[in-house]
Amino acid sequence: MKKYFAELVGTFILVLFGCGTAVVAGDKVGILGIAFAFGLALIGAAYGIGSISGCHINPAVSLGVFVAGRMSLKDMLGYWIGQFLGGIFAAWVLYAIVSGVGGGYNLAANGLGQDGWGPGYQGGYSLQSALLFELVATLIFVIVILGSTQAKAPSGFAGLAIGITLVAIHIFGIHITGVSVNPARSLGPALLVGGQAMAQVWLFLLVPSIGGALAGLLFRMKALEAD
Q: Is residue 188 classed exposed, middle or buried when 0-12, 13-18 and 19+ CB atoms within 10 A define those classes?
């Protein structure tokens, strides 16, 4: 249970600081600021809970680790529960914070940093663009995670490498989908915002999971496993 609770805490940190920066300070810090908020939050979580659970804080990562043969089905399901609860709780806390702004907070108009695509969302990219970006970005992200945490990788640097990769992914993709690569990060804000966010959340639950599983398969087949 300690591992599952650690995943809840780590996912809470990632979603609160990443989405919180987008909502509260996005107009001030821009894409780079939001990207670094997500990446630095992940790095902090990695060194905070990594020794307990490995700091997956992402159901797509846990699926990739499972497919690679590095964790049991029972643990993967326990991680998923912790991760999704952490993302939902973070979205709720973020909403409670921003609701205190002077003049009130319009949830429908301003959202909670939810992901999406199409007209009216960020750059207005198509469904096809959103699908391709989330698939490729998650595949790359989980490859970096599995590669930097394998037995022959340099020890002590995985959290830094993974966080920097998440920054790069956000710099590239914020205007495309807002960047998910993490079903728990997407579900929490979508549940509270509702409407179009919930109508589109299926993509951010499904496609990153496929990307994570493909990355895991590459390591299970020893295509990227160090000799």
A: buried
Q: Which CATH superfamily is domain 2-220 in?
A: Glycerol uptake facilitator protein. (1.20.1080.10)
Contacts of 206 (CB under 8 A, 6+ apart): none
Spans in the chain with pLDDT lower than 50: none
pLDDT tens for residues 141-156? 999 999 999 988 887 8
Cα atoms found within 13 Å of the Cα of residue 148, Cβ hemisphere only: 21
CA distances to 10, 210, 222, 223 from 86, in Å = 7, 22, 32, 33
H-state helical runs in 101-157 = 107-110, 127-148
* C-alpha triplet 117, 134, 50: angle, nearest 5°: 125
Count of CB atoms within 10 A of residue 156's CB? 8
